[in-house]
Amino acid sequence: MLRVAENTPSSGFQSIPQKLGFRSSSPSVDRILVVEDDRAVQRALKRLFEAEGYAVQTVADGNLAVEMFRTTVPSAVVLDLRLPGIPGREVCSELKKHSPTVPIIVLSAASDVSDKVLLLELGADDYVTKPFSPRELLARVRAALRRTTRPSNTEKFSFDDIHIDFTKMEVLREGKPVALTAQEFKTLKFMAQNAERVITRDELLNEVWGYHNYPSTRTVDNHILKLRQKLEKDPANPVHFRTVHGVGYKFVS
After folding, report:
1. Could you state, in order of their start, the residue ranges of all structural domains in the chain?
2. 156-251 fold
3. Which of 247, 249, 153, 141 is nearest to 196 (CA)?
4. Is the previous residue joined to 151 through a cis bond, with omega within 30 degrees of 0?
5. For residues 95 and 104, is the Cβ–Cβ distance under 8 A?
6. What digits encode the pLDDT tens for the residues 46-76?
7. pTM, full prediction
8. Which of 12, 114, 137, 240 could in theory staple to 4 by disulfide, Cβ–Cβ 3.0 to 4.6 A?
9. What string of DSSP letters covers 168-236?
10. What whole-number distance in Å separates Cα of residue 25 and Cα of residue 28?
């Protein structure tokens, strides 16, 4: 269950001021899809996000979540792992296959490091362990939305025989499609947007994964290795995805 602030009523949300509920009908308002089978938590999260001006849709079943997502893609997803129907891990994977750029914030009672790594590898943008603070969850959703809506310098990018269309989420090498995972694509996009600048592993984790207490930076190294294997002419001697020893990486076009 949600952790309740000491000075609030049992719901944990009464102290949050209600804000212009009609704003949710505006097409410019971000829409949050909450996938949670606990009705009490579902209602609490709906109140939390609506109080901040978001439009909210709720669903308690994994199959229905995938169906609703495909019908109308939301701005962000808050996803509980323990669901009837399709398990949360499979839901996360399916949603990312359909729309890799939509941020997914996972809720789970599990705190094992291996679970966190698995979810982030499947494409989850952040991971919050129950019980959690409503303010923390709200902050993480806002951060994920900021990362998603950050404008890029260009929607198309090329280097060597690689052509990238950020809008279509497509990467071509010598005219042939290159399959990238959601996290590999986001890593590539962030590095391309910050070309010629040294980027630390922690910055990549914070900006691409959105997980500020990640157990290891090894996942960054693994993703850079995959990008080299897929996009460098000689992965063993990379020209574009360069290591800056003791600091991180630098992308050179």
Report:
1. 21-149, 156-251
2. Arc Repressor Mutant, subunit A (1.10.10)
3. 249
4. no
5. yes
6. 999 999 999 999 999 999 999 999 888 899 9
7. 0.56
8. 12
9. TTEEEETTEE----HHHHHHHHHHHHTTTSEEEHHHHIIIII--TT-S-THHHHHHHHHHHHHH-SSTT
10. 9
